[in-house]
Structure formats: C-alpha cells, structure tokens
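Section handout, structural biology tutorial.
Before the tutorial, make sure you can parse a SMILES string by hand: atoms, branches in parentheses, ring closures as digits. In the record below the ligand is adenosine-5'-triphosphate, and the chain has 305 residues. In the tutorial you will relate the predicted structure tokens back to the input. Do not try to memorize them.
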Amino acid sequence: METLNRTEAVTLTGLHKTFTTSRTKVEAVRGVELGIETGQIVALLGPNGAGKTTTVDMILGLSQPTSGKVEVLGLDPRKAVSSGRVSAVMQTGGLLRDMTVLETVRVIAAMHQRPERVEAVMERTGLSGIAKRRVGKCSGGEQQRIKFALALLPDPDVLILDEPTAGMDVMARREFWATMHEEATGGRTIIFATHYLEEAQNFAERTVLMSGGRVVADGATEELRKLISGRTISATLPNEQAVVQAQRFDPSISIAERNGQRIWFKCADSDAFARALLSDYGAWDLEISAPSLEDAFIQLTKDAS
Ligand SMILES: Nc1ncnc2c1ncn2[C@@H]1O[C@H](COP(=O)(O)OP(=O)(O)OP(=O)(O)O)[C@@H](O)[C@H]1O
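Predicted structure of the complex:
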C-alpha cells in the first residue's frame, strides 16, 4: 500500500479530535477519512464550527489527533512542515507590526534559506508596491497577502490556506484567486478552508463538505451540484386551469413558489416539462435553473443531521 501513499499529498485515517474542558466535551472532528492526491485543488467547505480549522491544524502538526492518523507527503506532519514542503496561510497569528513588508518577507526567506525568492514572491503577490509599508499599517487584505507571500517562500509542494480571503473586499478577493490560479500550476497541491461556496465553485476541482466534525459529501465540485437532482422552472401561465393541468404533468412536479400567474415549479425532467409548458399549457417566459452549491450544501447538511 506504500505505493498508493506515495502519490498522496495528505492522508487522513480515522481522524478524531475531542476537546475536553472541565465542563464540556466537544467532538470537533469525528472520524474523517480523506486522501488528497498530489496536484489536487481541494476546498474544505462548511459552516462555522464544522471542524475545518481543527482538521487543518492537525494536517499542519499544530495539534495532535485524539485518535487516528495524519500523513503529509508520506511523513509525519511536523516533519513535512519543517522541511518546507508544506506551508500554510492561517486565519490568526503572527506578523510583527513594526517591521516593513519587505523586511518581513526577507526574514522568513532567510529562515528558509531561500533569499533568492524574495523579489519574485513580492512581485507575484502584489506586495512590491507596498514593500516599505509597516505591517501594522497594512489593511486586513494586505496582511493576508503578506501571509500568502510567506507561505510561498519555501516553494512548498502542499499549500494549506485557512479562509485565505477573510477580510478582503471583492476586488482583493478576485486578485487573490487570480494569483492562486498561477500558483496552482506545476503540481502544487492546494487545500483551502472556506465558508464561501462561490470560492469552492470557482476554484476547487474537488469539494469536501464538512458539518458537525464529519465529511458529509466529497466529490468533484460540479458533481456535488448534480447531487441535488432536478431543476426549477419558472414560467408565467395563462390561467388557473393551466396551472392545475401542469401540476399533473408528472408525479415529480411540485410548486415551490408562486406570485400571481408566475409559478416556480420543481421537477425531475426539466426538458420534457419545459416542452409541455410551452406547447400544451400556453406558458411563456420560461427560466430553468439548476440548484446552486449552496442548495446542495443545505440539503446535504440537513440529510446528515
Ligand atoms: N481549543 C478548543 N477548545 C474547545 N473547543 C474547541 C477548540 N477549538 C475548536 N473547538 C470547537 O470545535 C468545533 C470545531 O471548530 P473549528 O474551528 O474546527 O470549526 P471551523 O469549521 O473551522 O469553523 P470556522 O469556520 O468558524 O473557523 C467548534 O465547536 C469549536 O467551538
């Protein structure tokens, strides 16, 4: 089985993490099994408290599992991190406010013995223009970009990002992902935790949905959307008789919403129903929509609980 592991960037086996305080016991991660292949871009998606950060912390060797095992590039996570083959952009933590952006990047580059990467990384992460600014004067989004730059310095095989765009506005977020797209080429494995369904949808080929410490769905991001079968068709119908008849078209049809003669139907076979609406029931102004990842997520989380 060793040959299999060799191609995996991250392998989580029977992973559990329980936090015990004097009054409570929180099972933050409850039996996660996950294999992430080299070169994959994976979103860990889930609401607050799903267990994403706890999982990421264990992948980085920042905390130990209560039970189960973490392997990163076939190594113990702490070894993988200290060798510079894995790095991370975390939500919290340590930038020194009094140093300038360039000084910060230089110090960390020196630590990794990669001083030659300073200029290229500054350029790529859009920091060259603010090189002399003190970190404490940088906006939240700029500080995230500094952390991103620091993570890129060792030229890691695996990059882990815990809500990397927190604190960024829409423009900054877009620029960040454009840079990430460039970084994703060349076989780098990227794993990012996010609340934003849109970020998973736009960027990750694979999405792992977490809820209540468990993986509730895992698959190609596009497949996940298809998991919730069916479509919504909205149409305007000429009269009440047509509405009644349309509902009888097949047993999967139901009315999700209604505003006067404008009806939102849910149905399994949207092509056949659309044809019937137009030709048999005199409907007009049809709109057909597939469920969003958000719908899929709400549905799956409901099913899991
Ligand atoms: N050190 C800790 N002590 C006690 N409970 C903790 C600790 N860290 C996390 N938890 C709890 O574990 C659960 C999972 O938290 P975690 O931060 O992993 O979720 P998350 O999916 O990353 O959420 P968010 O998106 O809000 O960051 C939560 O109920 C949280 O309160």
